Amino acid sequence: MIVKQIDAKDTYPIRSEMLRKDLPLDSCHFDGDNEDSTFHLGAYIDDKLVSVASFYLKNNEKFSEEYQYQLRGMATLHSYQGQGLSQALLRTAFPIIKANHVKLVWCNARISAIGFYTKVGFEVASEEFEIPGVGTHKLMFKYV
Ligand SMILES: CC(C)(COP(=O)(O)OP(=O)(O)OC[C@H]1O[C@@H](n2cnc3c(N)ncnc32)[C@H](O)[C@@H]1OP(=O)(O)O)[C@@H](O)C(=O)NCCC(=O)NCCS
User: What residue owns the CA closest to ligand 1's atom 27?
Assistant: First the structure.
């Protein structure tokens, strides 16, 4: 397995399949995807991109830190799940975020993924809330 920095457009097929099934392809384009402060990571197995995650310099008002990163678009293709790929992406991302003098990472976690985020050290910071068309989430955070 190799982790590489990738372009926003490289994330779209996996986002579409895993996170925006049955929604139009442009629902996979997220605000800030092409900002200079944004970065996208991908895990490759046998030259195939199988897991992605994206990181945006974006504050959530629930937290007081001056600078914060938002984790979005975290997804691993079904047949590659449970092999530590998402964890490997985060292990690569956290030092990059830290090097940018940012200590807090937050995400809107799908209910079905809360177990994953907890496992990799995130904590819950809200009650459940709905993201229309996407599903039920909780706010989670981690200091890197
Ligand atoms: C959630 C998701 C990104 C995890 O990716 P993954 O590559 O399978 O995760 P990893 O293999 O790195 O998992 C790391 C650890 O978390 C555990 N884990 C993974 N998903 C889990 C879940 N849903 N609940 C509980 N634990 C989970 C793994 O078993 C592993 O534990 P281990 O270290 O004891 O072996 C993946 O299941 C996925 O793409 N889901 C669909 C899209 C999605 O919901 N994304 C999140 C949007 S908020």
Answer: 116
